[in-house]
TrEMBL record:
Protein name (record): Adenylate kinase
Organism classification: Bacteria, Bacillati, Actinomycetota, Actinomycetes, Bifidobacteriales
UniProt keyword annotation of Nucleotide-binding present: yes
Organism: Bifidobacterium ruminantium
Localization, UniProt: Cytoplasm
Domain of life: Bacteria
UniProt subunit comment: Monomer.
Length: 186
């Protein structure tokens, strides 16, 4: 199973990706997590990515596409994966298409989660208190929501046109949302 999980910040992508990963026995790959790991370990990639992440901006495509390409070529990704937080703009969709073409592994589905703006803001605030991410400042949160609306939300149409998009309500009990997704994906 090769899946994308998409939706605005705070909608529960990470939570559902982790449950899907367990259910299908495939890795959940989050570009945000990869960046955060590199930041924590002060790698060259981390130092560069931090400049953008703390402002709520997208890390340049060149860097992001490369980490995805490398990650999808790893052994544990042979039987499938869930990509969380990628692609985030039209050029990343193209890059992913090229990566998957090269690997000969097409996408099975795109899981899109949706929720009202107020619910998202509330969840983001709570997460900021719990996790203390350096990019959970009000300015960075606002910027991320703005980037999502302008650059990422339009990508859903691309996948809808390809017949891959499956949309789910991101509000409700985590387990029930998970069960609904799995029932739909099979
Ligand atoms: P996330 O954990 O998915 O919210 O990602 C945290 C931050 O990492 C984002 O606000 C971006 O700065 C950066 N990031 C994660 N994924 C991508 C991506 N696909 N393209 C560019 N930047 C990304």
């Amino acid at each position: 199973m090769r899946l994308l999980i998409m939706g605005p910040q705070g909608v529960g992508k990470g939570t559902q990706a982790a449950l899907l990963s367990k259910h299908y026995g495939i890795p959940a790959i989050s570009t945000g997590d990869i960046f955060r790991y590199n930041i924590k370990n002060k790698t060259e990639l981390g130092v560069e990515a931090l400049k953008y992440i703390d402002k709520g901006e997208l890390v340049p495509d060149e860097l992001t596409n490369k980490i995805v390409k490398d990650r999808l070529a790893m052994d544990d990704a042979k039987n499938g994966w869930i990509l969380d937080g990628y692609p985030r703009n039209a050029s990343q969709v193209e890059a992913l298409d090229a990566i998957l073409n090269e690997l000969g592994t097409p996408l099975d589905a795109v899981v899109a989660l949706d929720a009202d703006h107020d619910v998202l803001m509330e969840r983001m605030k709570k997460r900021a208190e719990i996790e203390g991410r350096s990019d959970d400042t009000p300015e960075a949160i606002a910027k991320r929501l703005d980037v999502y609306a302008k650059e990422t939300a339009p990508l859903l149409d691309i996948y809808r046109q390809r017949g891959l998009l499956k949309t789910f309500d991101g509000v409700g009990a985590v387990d029930e949302i998970q069960a609904t997704i799995v029932a739909e994906l099979g």
